[in-house]
Amino acid sequence: MFPFFSRSKMSDAPEVNPAPAKTHEPHPLDALTGGAFSAATSGERASRIRDWLATQPAPEQLQEVFKELSGRDKGAARAVRERLDEIRRAKGQEAIAAEWADKAQALLAAPKLNIADALAWQRDAAKAGAPLSREPLSLLKVQLADRVKVIEDLQHRVQVQREAAVLLAQRIEVLSTKPWRDAHAALELLRADVARWQEQAQELTGDASWASVEARFPPLLDASRTQLLVVWEAFQPAVAQAAAAAEDVSAPLPPVPVWADELRAARGLPTEAAAAAAASAAASKPARVAKPKVAPEVIEKAHQLVRDALATLEKETAEGHGKASAGAAAALRAVLKVHGKHIDNALEQQVHTALVAAGELEGWQRWSADQVREELVAKAEALLNRPEGQALGGRKMQETLRNLRDQWKQADQGGAPNHALWKKFDEACNAAHKVVEAWLDKIRTEAAEHKAQRLALIEEVKAWAQEHAASGDWKAINRSLYQFGDRWREGGHVGEKIFAELQPLWKQAIAVAAAPLEAAQKESLARRHAMIDEATALGAAPALRIDAVKALQQRWQAEAQTVPLDRKHEQKLWDAFRKPIDEAFNRKSADRDRAVTELSARDRVVLDASKALEAANATGDAQQIRAAMQALEAALRGQAQAAEAVATANKDAQSHAEAQANAAPAAPAATEIASEASAEAAEGGDAAAAAPAPTPAAPKPVARPVVAVRGDDRPGMKKDAPVPPGRGARPGDRRDGRPGDRDGARGPRSDGRMGDRADRGGRFGDRPAFEDRGPRLGDTAFRAQREAMEHAQLALKKLAAQAHGEALTQLLTAWEKRDAALVPGTQDLGSGVTASVRSAWTQALSAAPKGDAAEALLRLEMAAEAPTPAEHIAARRMLQLQLLTRRNDPAPTQTWGQDVARVLASNSDAANARRLQNVLKTLLRK
Description:
Number of strands: 0
Strand content: under 5%
Radius of gyration: 58 Å
Structural class: mainly alpha
Helix content: 55-70%
């Protein structure tokens, strides 16, 4: 240790003045950030940074603060970094917004706007990452959407006008089949409807967006106008002519057949049909014969065509398809113009009924379409009014809005438009679309971040490739390449266009990085194929060289650990490498097995002894099993008398079997003795097994007198009794009873050193010389003797357990019948029951029953550590507390014999017998 010397007061060394305490100077940026750098805790620093960010500082100040703060507190610097990223993204989006704003203004300024171009602008702007939810793109998007809505509305109104013209023509045609007075009454209403239709058509063509309507709609409107005017201009003069003919008899009849027949009837003249019938009746018969008849095939064909057209019209009318029913009605009228003269009156009546029903369907279709539109408006308004926690996400909202708009288009195709409901529906959809816009903005932002991360990963791979170009650690390089691949796959979602741009860059960078590894793998493959050829040559050699095989395997392992390959390819190479070697070893094993199968004389003796032991195991006789075991042990030691011992064992077994058939029931005791003997033999190992064999013993050395013996100082043991020697059969135990002594297994020295210690044969007494085990057994004989010995030991244990159970049953039977003669003997009960204890049990059974066995049973259960029934747990706890106060009383484990006697002295019942049986199962084995 170093001594510490105090400075003397009289020392000439000058005293050193203590350094003044350091004062913390404020950070230069504390004044700017409101004391964020001098904050005591991280939470307080983050709070002051947030308050400072709320003042909207300049980007230069943000950059300076982030540079200083990132090294001190990364948590507080995260808010500053997010603000810098937001400003950086805003600058990039401003340029994109200006570009797409110019494109939108160009579309709006064009005299003709294509709907596809407007929709493509919004789609492409979203893909490019333009901020469509901010000004001015949000306003331009709304303007383009309004312009597209106006154009689509014009196109829809053209279709409506076309349907309205068809309906007006149908009304005029239906009136031409009714009395002329009905047509005259409806003339003014028709004139107003036609004038209104012409005004609406003129309004459509005069709209400023008419030039942007698709090219197929203006011809439709012109054709409808022409058709309606032709029918109307023919209908007005006919009505006026019918009215004049009704007032003036001399006036000409109108060209409408129905009205002309009506006026003829009013004038008292025959109708045209009656005149034709009279003329035909007045005509001569040859003339009627000369009139050509219509062929039945033509009539049948006319009926079939009319029925098909009529069925189509009735089907569309029943399904409520207004637009399709109008087309079917037009097709039916076209068929009637050609084949109407060949049909009968009944079919003609069905045709007129179907045409009238198709005309009435239009009014019902308007009401049905309004019902559908109201439901769609309710669904659109409910998108933003969902319960808390059930709001739709961006993608789900987008799909729902698309489905609602498609349903609205289908409803418009079946009826007249309703602008009021359309306005409410469009407003609700636009309000819900804000969720979609926010989701799209988030997706675009994430895509931009993912793109930046992937570009950074590509640069990192390039830098890593340059850094590790000369490295030879191929395993680390392979691992790093796999890690780069995982990071690329987990880099987040980007658009298809961006991914198509990044994927070639990634492949190029990773190919450059993996080029050295691929070259090394190619060289390693060549070396491994050479080793496979070498292994094939070694395996084909007549004599297998183990040293060459080991060296070759070591070279293969070194190569596999140096250069990694694909797992499947490497496994195939390894299988090809080990196949010839395995075949060579299999040939060698086959040769060895062939040699082993040729049994020696000693192996045959062991096999015969093993078979004799198996036969003894099958008899279930303990004495016979022991004799067979002794014979097998003698055969294992290779004695000359082994064969005779086997034969003697077989004879003893036969004689014992005959004696057993005539003997009294002494089997339990013999079984117990056999079990104890087998247990001792199993624990004793070779030392115990060697006892019965008459081996030639070494000359016994002269025993020296014992000078001192260490007594046993354990509680309850005699001090003058020496410690019993160990059995030496367990691992680590010496045969002389001193486990762990390194000199215990040595024999006597042969060089004569250390005086007469070489003549003592051991350290603490005599010890037999090392026994000769004989030649090594073959595999078949070794396995046979091992299995036979294992089966014998199991059989002896089983017999011992059976004997133990029978003794316990006899004891309980003696208690139940109170017959002392039925108590088993001391050998049957085991070593734990002495003669005095058995005598106490017989005396208790000989006397009359007396006393209570409750406390004795509780003590027995505590001694055996057995569970107590639930109804006696409280009594057991009380007894345990009482025993704690009786320190000098013996424990239940020491007095369990007397406790059993107390139980046997009491009356026997089923519950106490079961409890006594449970505890004696444990206590008799101790």
